[in-house]
């Protein structure tokens, strides 16, 4: 371990302990600056672990030391013997101060992979580190990145029953039915591991319970094998929330927000928007028809013959009122729809009654 590594490990608490990151009382941070000025190797690694000084600052939650090292030009994405970067180390240590510093550093690779393919987001979902999952997604980490076994962050969150991460990932558009190398979905893993709350969250978001794994087993089958009877009942009986509940629970401002662009293409959102559009168009047409088809002032309803072929030529419309017309058409006279029909007929008929020959009066 080099003197710079020792200084990184013994660095003051900085952001992680609530201290001022620029405190002049922090002798360890000052030592780091002095060692760097004297030419200390920033990216030297430990023989056993392959960790750099920045790895150690992250592992021991030394936010001030991490900032000094980055300011001096330390490699933000150096990997240890397992492939972990300083960001992986910060997530694993729940070192929020170092995590935020690395997140704001433009050189940091948010999708760096360990040797087993684990990304920082997958690690945060697996370890249930509060707040880090959403911060990584907001910083544009790949939400559907998979490790070497094909498991995404949602797979791992479901497996360990990290329901908060499950909901966050689904809200931001994670693939709810992604399959790993064994064709297992997040719902399948949740059912196998007994993650009841994660199962319910996935079902609420319309996860497909009929996708089988490479052994042709359903989530229900594996839950039954593991004696997770509560999950078996859930899979048998659970009814997802209706589309109305889904869309009403999501504000329009959220759907149109750039950070939630995936909601614009969500099938439920699209279907709801189309239905609302049809209803508005229908309402507009009906309102316009009732307004435009009012009879002229002083006009009266006369007796009509057949109407444009819509009624059989042998039929005769009896009566001079709209009710008579509607009764022949087999419709409800009081229906608003028939008001439009009657008004249309009213225009086509003459306002004057036909003249009766005098001989007929005799």
Automatic annotation (TrEMBL):
PROSITE patterns: ANK_REP_REGION (PS50297), ANK_REPEAT (PS50088). Residues 327-344 have a biased composition (Polar residues). It comes from the Eukaryota. The keyword Repeat applies. Pfam families: Ank, Ank_2, Ank_5. The keyword RNA-binding does not apply. Keywords: ANK repeat, Repeat. InterPro entries: Ankyrin_rpt, Ankyrin_rpt-contain_sf. Residues 275-306, 327-362 are annotated as: Disordered. PANTHER family: ANKYRIN REPEAT AND PROTEIN KINASE DOMAIN-CONTAINING PROTEIN (PTHR24198), ANKYRIN REPEAT-CONTAINING PROTEIN-RELATED (PTHR24198:SF165). This is Uncharacterized protein. It comes from Anopheles aquasalis (Malaria mosquito).
């Amino acid at each position: 371990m080099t003197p710079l590594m020792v200084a990184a490990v013994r660095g003051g608490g900085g952001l992680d302990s609530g201290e001022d990151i620029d405190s002049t009382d922090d002798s360890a941070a000052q030592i780091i600056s002095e060692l760097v000025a004297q030419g200390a190797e920033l990216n030297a690694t430990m023989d056993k672990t392959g960790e750099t000084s920045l790895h150690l600052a992250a592992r021991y939650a030394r936010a001030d030391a991490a900032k000094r090292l980055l300011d001096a030009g330390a490699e933000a994405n150096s990997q240890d013997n397992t492939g972990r970067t300083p960001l992986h180390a910060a997530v694993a240590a729940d070192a929020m101060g170092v995590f935020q510093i690395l997140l704001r550093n433009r050189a940091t690779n948010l999708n760096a992979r360990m040797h087993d393919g684990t990304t920082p987001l997958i690690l945060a979902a697996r370890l249930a580190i509060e707040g880090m999952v959403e911060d990584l997604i907001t910083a544009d980490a790949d939400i559907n990145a998979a490790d070497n076994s094909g498991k995404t962050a949602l797979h791992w969150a479901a497996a360990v029953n990290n329901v908060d991460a499950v909901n966050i990932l689904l809200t931001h558009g994670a693939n709810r039915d992604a399959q790993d190398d064994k064709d297992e979905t997040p719902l399948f893993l949740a059912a196998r591991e007994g993650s009841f709350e994660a199962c319910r969250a996935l079902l609420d978001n319309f996860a497909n319970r009929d996708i089988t794994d490479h052994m042709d087993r359903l989530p229900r089958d594996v839950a039954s094998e593991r004696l997770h009877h509560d999950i078996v009942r859930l899979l048998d009986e659970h009814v997802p929330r209706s589309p109305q509940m889904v869309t009403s629970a999501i504000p329009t401002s959220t759907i149109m927000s750039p950070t939630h662009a995936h909601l614009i293409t969500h099938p439920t959102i699209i279907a709801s928007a189309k239905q609302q559009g049809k209803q508005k168009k229908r309402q507009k047409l009906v309102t316009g028809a009732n307004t435009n088809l009012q009879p002229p002032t002083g006009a009266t309803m006369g007796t009509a013959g057949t109407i444009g072929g819509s009624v059989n030529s042998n039929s005769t419309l009896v009566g001079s009122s709209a009710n008579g017309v509607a009764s022949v058409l087999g419709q409800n006279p009081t229906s608003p729809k028939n008001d439009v029909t009657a008004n249309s007929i009213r225009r086509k008929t003459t306002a004057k009654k036909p003249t009766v020959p005098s001989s007929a009066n005799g």
